Structure of Clr5 domain-containing protein:
Amino acid sequence: MEQQEQKSRIERDMDAWKRIEDKLINRYGSKIANDRHFLKAKRQIYKHIHRKYKNKRLNQYEKAELRVLRGQHRQLLRQAYPNPVVRLIRNILVFAGNTIKLTGDIGWKAARWLVPPDRTQSPGPPVLKNAQQKPQTGPRPSATRSQGVVRKMPRRPRVQMPMPQSRQRIRR
C-alpha cells in the first residue's frame, strides 16, 4: 500500500484560493492578475488564512508555510501600493481607524458595565396561543429583593393537552 502525503491545512486553503483565482483569470483575462482590486482581494484572502491559523498548533512545515504566506501578503501590499509615501499614509490611517474602533469598543463595554440595565419595566403579559389557556400567576418577588442578583427565567404559558371526547363535560 502506497502512503500518500497529506496536504497541510494551509496548503488546502491556498489550493482552494488558487482554483478561484484561475476561474477569475479565465473569466476576465490575464490582465486581472495585475489589477489593484484583484490584488486587494488576494491580500484579504492571504490575511484571512494567516489569521485562521495564527494561534493554532502547527507542525514545522505549516509554520514555515505561514511565514511564506505572511511574506506574500507584504509583497502584495507593496504591489498594490507601490509608492512608499502612499503606503505610509495608508498604514497610519488604518492604524488610527483600528485604534478608534478599539477605543470605542472598550468604552462601550465599560459603559454597559458601569450603567445597570433598566429593570423597572416589567415584561408584558404572555401571549396565549389558545383562548382556553390561562397565564400562570404565582407569587411575585418582593420589592426588597435585589433585582441585579436574581436572574428570572421568562414566563411561559402552561400547555394543556386536549381532552378526549369521552371525558369532556358539557356545560349547560
